[in-house]
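Narrative summary of target 7.
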Amino acid sequence: MSFAWMMLLIFSVSSSFAQYDKVVTKIIGIGKTDNRTMDHLDVLCNRFGGRPIGSDAYENAAEWAAYKFREWGLDVVMDEAGELPVGFNRGPWFGRMLSVDGMNLHFATPSYTAGTKGMQTGHVLMEPKTLKQFDMMKGRLKGAWVLITGESDGFPIDYSSTGDRKRDSIIALNEEISKENSEIRRYNREKADSLPEKEIQAYVEEPALFYSQMREAGILGIIQSTPVPIRVLYDRKNLDSMTFETLPTIPDIKLDEHQYAIIEQMARERQNFLLEFDIRNHFKMGPVKYHNVIGIIPGTKYPDEYVIMGGHLDSYDVATGAVDDGSGATPAMEAARLIMKAGGKPKRTILVCLWAGEEFGLLGSTSWIERNRDDLDKISNMFNRDGGPTVPTGISVSEAMWKEMENICEPLNAINLDFPFVMEKRKPRKRPEKAWGTDSGPFAVEGVPTMTFGTGDPKGYNFSYREIWHTERDLFNKSIAEYQEHTATVTAIVVYGVANLDHLLSREGYYLPPEEKNGSSE
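Modeled conformation, tokenized:
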């Protein structure tokens, strides 16, 4: 590009900025020259790390976010959203196979599950599937690592009494199948050559079928195959009833499927080898409270009306939560900083909500709604970002909102010509009956507009959300800096614009009217 053409482009872009609100012009300038989105993400991921609620990392991240909001001039509410009976902190984890062709092991464990008691070394057994098999090997179970069947979905084996009852019923059923199979084998041996053989029945498969019996026999832990990249979640079935006296006692290891296949073959061949693990999963006494962090930019004319922007602050701790949802939380933080730095004084209040417990079931946003029902009809829109570090490419807008949103979005195409922004008409949709899987879901159920940005990867960075979603690859280096920084600027402009309207955005035509039943609306 020639120098003259470059100067012409700069002049035209600068001239186009001049026609916009002075705050918007400043937001664009700061966003282009002093954007700190990635600085916030660096702290969130590489100083605090993975952030499940109940962890020190989450509490540290919440305190830091509140500190930054105050530093930028926002009011702050540490909004208590709930508590957990115990807390959990993850330390380092290591493992290796001790044999002639030994190898370092690639694995992880779900949150709120047990670690080892220091470095623990033991032999390897395949899990029993019948009482007969259990009786044959029960003397060897002490000090063993047990390979269990099935493919991990990220959650641990349910060791609760409910889980035990389910397994006991399957054990009883398999005993009946075993007896029937004995009869079938006898029949097949004794039948006349002219009669067809009867088919042997398959046992009901259940991973860790003899979990309680193996634990009582003294196993070191269980090991299950998992796809790569490794995904581990948390103990959703036992967490609410945990006490410090009833914590899990044996590790639940999810092992790289390729290594599992090698070890499984060696175990079935009864080869002589050992596995060694050091897993530092630590608990703390509860109850442990968790908080939404809410930064507030007060409205100057309509302080009791709101625009919400944000994402969830919590994450799983197998990685560092850079994408899910650092890519939503940190652009919202930077958008708030840009508005304040640019001198923005919106007419209605902006709430910058960093939600707690999204990964544990939308806990923070659901709690906030339950406690603020009287304010839901005063929310102009709830902007939520929870889909990865891709760049805003457009927005879907209802007919009733079109004119206002068109004016608000006009500056967006002048920020960076590589990232064109397109508005589309949004057809009315049925109001959801159940919340979808991110923090906008509970708001949509209550009829609050949850208009948000469509995103894309226009520069072709080959980003894959499924690759990192709840896996070990959800790291800082999976983020895309120029997309994240542009997101913060776009978010600041649009949220500030909606907050600065003379009226709430119309909800007309956003959702379909309630269906008529027996002559009356639902």
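Residues 13-86+287-511 form a domain with the Aminopeptidase fold (CATH 3.40.630.10).
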